[in-house]
Structure formats: C-alpha cells, structure tokens
Fold this sequence. Notes:
single chain; mainly alpha; 70% helix; 8 helices
Amino acid sequence: MQSPFDILGVRDDASRREINAAYRKLAKKFHPDVEGGDGDRFQEITEAYNALTVRPARGAVEARRPARPVAPEPEEAFGPRQWLITLLRRHTFGALAVFAFLFGLFLLDWGDGIHEDFTPGLLLAGSAAILLSVGFFANRKHVYVDLPDAVERAIISVARFLFDMLVRVYLMLVLVFSVIALLALINWVKRHFLHFLPMHF
C-alpha cells in the first residue's frame, strides 16, 4: 500500500508548500472535469493530501514512519576559555565601558602636550571615548547583540544624558532669571508706588 507521500510524489520530509504544489499539479491532471481525467485517481490524491494536511491524519501518518536516528550532541568541556566567553557575553557592555574609558584616558594622555605635541583631535577623541564608556555602562543590563548595536545604544544613552543635562541647566537658568526679574519688578514697584517703604528689605 502506497503512503500519502508516495501518492503525491513528495519526500517524507516535504514542506507544506511542496505538498500543496504537488497536489495542485496532480489535481489539474486527474480532475474528472478535465479531458482524460480519472475520478478514482483524483479521489486517491485528495485523500492523500488531506492525510498530510489535516493535523490528526498527518500525525497518524508520521507515527507510522520509521524514526530517524539522531546523533547525540557532543558534550562541550567547560574550560577556562568557555568560562571567559560566557563571562564576556554576560558582561559585554561592562567590558566595553571599561575598555572605552581606558582608551579615552590613553588618548587624553597622548594628546595633552605634556609628553608629546599638543593635539586637540586626540583630546576630542578621548573625551568622546569616555562619554561612550558612560553610554556602555548605562546599557550594562541589556543583552549584547553585536558591536554596531552596542555603539548605537551607547550613543543614544549619551545623547539622552546630555539632553537631560541641558534641560536641567536651562530650567535652572530660567529659575535664576525669573527670580532676578521678580526682584527687579518688586524694586520698580517700590520705587514708583510704595515710597513709604524702605528701598531694600
């Protein structure tokens, strides 16, 4: 007795798309309404298709197939190298933060003009590296995907930090100037309308 896979002419591990394509091809060929069609053959094809596409029937068909031997996966020894890789994967952002900070200090020391010529570009690059280390440290609880993604996360974190600092400075300046303007207004009111009060509290 032929299996549904043999009737449709597909492999035992055929995908749903391959099964659908094989069924459409055979159905067009053997449909009773087509000239030269075969009703019995078409019914056999339809039953085989239903057996492979309806879940309970597909499970029964697969249960009758011989199981394929699966090779056991070799156990990987957990040595110092594997321990180091696992540690770096868990703490990649922290390691990047430390590396970027030390690299930034190296650039600042190299470009400060004490031991070598004064190089503003190195000072700028060192400052950027230290800011980047702050961004890496802020993302230390995130899962590391790859280096471009880590750098992008760090840049976004630094940008948010700087924006937040600018907003705080702006609000402080607004507060200071508001107090100065209020004191000036009070002094003007005292000078023009409240002559009986002292000029200064």
